[in-house]
Amino acid sequence: MNIARATGWTNGGLLGHARSLAIEGWAGAAVTAAAVVATVAVIAAVLTRPGSRLAAALSSPPAVEVGRRSYGIYLYHWPIFIFLGLRTPAKALGLGIPLSLAAAWISYAFVERPFLRLKQRWSANDPGRRTCELTGIPVSHRVVEPDLHAGVS
User: What is the pLDDT of residue 142?
Assistant: First the structure.
């Protein structure tokens, strides 16, 4: 994990904190602030001590598999919680989280993984293809310079 990516995660957490304060008031903001502080502490611990038990736990196969599906978990949890009216912690833990995990696993198997394979196939056909170090998004390997004299007489 690099520092820029960790900083991006921290900034995202701070934006979530501001959203929580605006929507849920101080109680929701306090919970969100605690989550942001805990996230920063975990990221700092893993970056400063990559051989620690925490880093090993986060690198374990189950944690990696949950991490691969984390976007799907994030994406599906909100509609599931809203649609089923899961507003209490007991209902969220008992029904919402298992359904969110199931939806993310299904989505990963039938949507994300096929597109990841397609991406790998395309990348294999173009060995000169580069990606942005921060985002992993493919970037053009051709430099296109604008014609600054176009239309000038």
Answer: 52
